[in-house]
């Protein structure tokens, strides 16, 4: 993740990407709205087509049926209802009464399951036989049809041969004419049905065979299965017919493919939709909103379009026709639409891929427009990014010159926007920075002058203090004239103590002044630092014993090139400092290796903000120990180590404080 964070990406690329996706989001939303319009137009166009078909039925219904009391289950109404959509078998119809109770759910023009045979005889003949009389066979009709449909669906990839025996009885219709479809056999009594497909077979026979039937009345049809249709299923088998001229016969070849249309989901949808949304004690017609009108103007009935619904990954559009019964209205009395309503006719259209099809159509119709929009978005994104980045690049160049202290580099402050404000702020900042640097330089020069004055004062102070030291030493001899022995000894002790302290201070200040002036010449020689460490420790052994301080040493021979006298001062001050700041009973550890000397004392740690100040003159961390030392020891050590260019430092440890220098 860190590797990707370190990748440098141009601001132009970032801004272009953001603007591009912002525009793309707007275009995508417009595409979504466009696709929705296409989907709506597709559904509404289909609904209008359905309305135009239903209105023919409504006209016939109004002229011939509605003048009398309407019986939705009567033969007269049902005959008109069966072909209300002019034989469009792709639509599912549902008839309900006024309260929404379902009377019928079926496919347009399908009265009963029908099987179609393509004859294998010398003469091509297509025969369609309705299977309604299968109820006369041993099996129950619904179960038999279900078994037959299952067998056909399992064998759609192979050629199937059908043999069917029946007693043909096709009466004339009510007008004394034969049915228009001469190839469809209706109202025939089926005695037996046998289908075979690559070793798989389906068969069912009537008991009349065993009771004895006059064979003269039996008609047999054999041939290749061409199609099967029912309310919920439509199977069309692909066939190819070739003629062999030499043998003068027709050969029927069925390819291993078929077209299957399953309407079971549509039937289930309309049943669930009506049961869940419309079935109630009083059928709520207000749910049937979005009334449909057509350009032709007057319609013979009221039609409604129900909002699209999803069911089993399919989209369903439903058109509703309100059926009226004028015989229910008494003359001279007011009435409403609910008073006239006697039922509803629902027509359902199933869409497998409504969105994808609408998307495809929409994109094909608008592809050139969107390609131009896409190109426009890219150009606009780059232009916006360039307009923003260009002044930023100028500001970046200005800041680079400022880092080089080129404060006179010109800054463009002519813009009147946020970038202009930023440029003016940078210009103001550069002016303030230039002033600050000038003032800081003056402060540095002043500090150097004060430091020179301090060094001069230290030198003068130590020079002047030598005279009083001589006087104090001379007068100390006169104390012997005092007769009171106790007072004389007390004066002597005080004078000697103060004399020693002043003398140490003077000498230390002289040494420090000389060292910090950097006018001291180092008397370099090669010697073993171990000798100095041993001698210093030996001279202070009694002090360690007095304070009961444990001393641990880890010492190796170490030859260095340095000023031996001044290095002795450093070692003595480091050990003395550790001794003074170690409490009774604790430990001081001294280590000497080929390249490093260090001393660690157990005790209080130095506060973090004091670590840098510890090397300053007269600075003491523990103010309560003012009687110990002059406050110049570590300053002298710093000056000596700086002259030798040795690395040194102080740090807190788990036990206490560690001083060290390396060479």
Strand content: 15-25%
Write down the overall mean pLDDT.
76
| Radius of gyration using CA atoms only | 57 Å
Structural class: alpha+beta
Largest sheet, strands/sense/barrel: 9 strands, mixed
- SS summary, helix count: 15
Task: Work out the number of β strands.
Answer: 21
Distance between the termini: 44 Å
Note down, in words, how this protein is organized:
The strands form four sheets. Strands 3, 4, 5, 6, 7, 8, 9, 10 and 11 form a nine-stranded mixed sheet that branches. A hairpin with a 4-residue loop joins strand 10 and strand 11 (249-262). This protein is elongated. 44% of the residues lie in helices and 24% in strands. Helix 8 runs parallel beside helix 9 (418-464) and helix 10 runs antiparallel to helix 11 (485-516). The chain has helices spanning 2-5, 11-65, 75-82, 141-154, 208-211, 264-278, 337-340, 354-403, 418-464, 466-478, 485-516, 529-539, 541-546, 564-580, 633-644; strands spanning 92-97, 102-107, 114-119, 126-130, 161-167, 184-185, 189-197, 200-205, 218-229, 233-244, 249-262, 302-311, 314-324, 341-351, 524-528, 550-555, 559-563, 587-592, 596-602, 647-652, 656-662. It has 15 helices and 21 strands. Residues 176-181 and 243-250 have low confidence and may be disordered. It is an alpha+beta fold and 663 residues long.
């Amino acid at each position: 993740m860190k590797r990707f964070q370190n990748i440098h990406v141009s601001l132009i690329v970032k801004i272009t990407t953001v603007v591009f996706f912002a525009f793309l989001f707007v275009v995508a939303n417009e595409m979504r709205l466009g696709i929705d319009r296409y989907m709506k137009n597709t559904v509404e166009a289909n609904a209008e087509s359905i309305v135009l078909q239903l209105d023919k039925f409504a006209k016939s219904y109004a002229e011939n049926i509605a003048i009398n009391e309407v019986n939705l289950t009567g033969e007269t109404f049902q005959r008109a209802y069966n072909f209300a959509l002019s034989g469009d078998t792709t639509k599912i119809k549902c008839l309900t009464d006024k309260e929404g109770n379902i009377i019928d759910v079926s496919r347009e023009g399908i009265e009963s399951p029908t099987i179609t045979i393509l004859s294998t005889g010398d003469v091509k003949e297509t025969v369609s036989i309705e299977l309604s009389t299968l109820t006369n066979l041993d099996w129950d009709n619904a179960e038999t049809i279900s078994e037959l449909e299952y067998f056909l669906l399992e064998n759609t990839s192979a050629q199937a041969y059908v043999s069917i025996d029946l007693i043909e009885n096709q009466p004339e219709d009510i007008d004394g004419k034969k049915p228009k479809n001469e190839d469809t056999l209706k109202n025939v009594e089926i005695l037996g049905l046998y289908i075979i497909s690559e070793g798989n077979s389906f068969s069912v026979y009537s008991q009349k065979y065993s009771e004895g039937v006059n064979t003269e009345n039996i008609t047999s049809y054999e041939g290749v299965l061409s199609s099967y249709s029912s309310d919920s299923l439509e199977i069309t088998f692909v066939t190819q017919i070739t003629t062999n001229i030499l043998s003068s016969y027709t050969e029927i070849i069925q390819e291993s493919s078929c077209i299957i249309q399953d309407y079971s989901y549509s039937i289930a949808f309309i049943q669930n939709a009506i049961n869940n949304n419309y079935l109630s004690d009083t059928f709520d017609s207000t749910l049937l909103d979005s009334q449909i009108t057509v350009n032709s103007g007057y319609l013979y009935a009221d039609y409604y379009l129900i909002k699209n619904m999803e069911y089993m990954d399919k989209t369903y559009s439903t058109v509703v026709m309100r059926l009226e019964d004028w015989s229910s209205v008494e003359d001279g009395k007011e009435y409403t639409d609910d008073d006239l309503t006697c039922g509803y006719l629902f027509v359902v259209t199933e869409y497998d891929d409504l969105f994808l099809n609408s998307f495809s159509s929409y994109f094909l119709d608008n592809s050139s427009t969107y390609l131009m929009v896409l190109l426009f978005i890219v150009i606009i994104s780059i232009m916006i990014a360039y307009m923003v980045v260009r002044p930023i690049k100028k500001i970046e160049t200005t800041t680079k010159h400022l880092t080089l202290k080129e404060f006179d580099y010109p800054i463009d402050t002519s813009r009147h926007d946020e970038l202009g404000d930023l440029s003016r702020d940078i210009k103001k900042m550069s002016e303030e920075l230039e002033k600050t640097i000038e003032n800081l330089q003056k402060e540095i020069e002043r500090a150097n002058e004060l430091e020179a004055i301090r060094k001069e004062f230290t030198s003068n102070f130590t020079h002047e203090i030598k005279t009083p030291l001589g006087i104090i030493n001379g007068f100390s001899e006169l104390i012997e004239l005092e007769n009171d022995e106790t007072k004389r000894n007390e004066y002597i002790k005080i004078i000697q103590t103060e004399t020693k302290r002043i003398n140490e201070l003077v000498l230390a200040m002289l040494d420090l002044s000389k060292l910090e002036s950097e006018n001291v010449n180092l008397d370099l020689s090669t010697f073993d630092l171990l000798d100095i460490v041993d001698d210093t420790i030996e001279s202070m052994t009694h002090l360690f014993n007095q304070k009961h301080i444990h001393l641990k040493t880890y010492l190796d021979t170490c030859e260095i090139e340095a000023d031996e006298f001044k290095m002795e001062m450093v070692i003595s001050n480091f050990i003395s400092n550790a001794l003074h700041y170690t409490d009774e009973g604790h430990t001081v550890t001294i280590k000497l290796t080929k390249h490093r000397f260090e001393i660690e004392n157990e005790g209080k740690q130095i506060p973090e903000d004091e670590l840098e100040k510890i090397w300053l003159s007269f600075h003491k961390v523990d103010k309560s120990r003012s009687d110990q030392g002059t406050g110049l020891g570590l300053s002298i050590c710093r000056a000596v180590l700086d002259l030798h260019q040795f690395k040194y430092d102080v740090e807190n440890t788990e036990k206490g404080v560690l001083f060290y220098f390396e060479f």
